């Protein structure tokens, strides 16, 4: 089974769960099916549509982190799996200001890079090499990044998520 998006009672995206868990939420009347996956599960007594998006019956207050955690998958998704220096397929991460020169391990200093560019750059600054970044690195924003992270997004969820993560997750 695939995954399903769980929305709060106010249609705010909360998390992604397995379709099995989403079906259990619907059957126990803790959630209402908003959109079907187009599949049907049958038993001897009943047949039930498999949910792809569910909405909780009661509002749940969830404290969110102020910033998305920095992960390798997240950086690669943000940079569309392309090297920020030469646009080749990215296979590693690179610190724009090297850590050996005081650079921090934060979203604004970490970029996706191909192996060749990462090896050539080593612990030098981008300006020393005369290189330029295709895009300035920044921390991803929006509730959808906290929910999806670097997961692949089902296209049917796009109506419930913000557009900035829709572009990154589809790459």
Automatic annotation (TrEMBL):
**Ranges annotated as spanning the membrane:** none
Q: Gene3D superfamilies, from UniProt?
A: 1.10.30.50
Cited InterPro entries: HNH_5, HNH_nuc, NA-targeting_endonuclease
Which Pfam family, just one, is annotated for this protein? HNH_5
HNH nuclease domain location: 70-119
- State what protein this is by name: HNH nuclease domain-containing protein
The scientific name of the source species is: Frankia canadensis
């Amino acid at each position: 089974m695939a995954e399903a998006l769980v929305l709060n009672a106010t249609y705010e995206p909360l998390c992604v769960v397995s379709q099995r868990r989403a079906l259990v939420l619907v059957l126990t009347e803790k959630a209402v099916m908003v959109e079907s996956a187009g599949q049907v599960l049958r038993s001897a007594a009943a047949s039930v549509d498999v949910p792809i998006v569910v909405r909780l019956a009661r509002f749940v207050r969830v404290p969110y982190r102020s910033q998305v955690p920095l992960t390798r998958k997240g950086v690669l998704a943000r940079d569309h799996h392309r090297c920020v220096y030469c646009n080749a397929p990215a296979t590693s991460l690179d610190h724009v200001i090297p850590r050996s020169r005081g650079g921090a391990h934060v979203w604004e200093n970490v970029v996706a890079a191909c192996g060749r560019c990462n090896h050539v750059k080593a612990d030098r600054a981008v300006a020393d090499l005369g290189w330029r970044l295709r895009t300035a690195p920044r921390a991803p924003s929006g509730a959808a990044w906290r929910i999806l992270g670097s997961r692949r997004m089902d296209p049917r969820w796009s109506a419930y998520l913000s557009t900035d993560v829709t572009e990154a997750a589809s790459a």
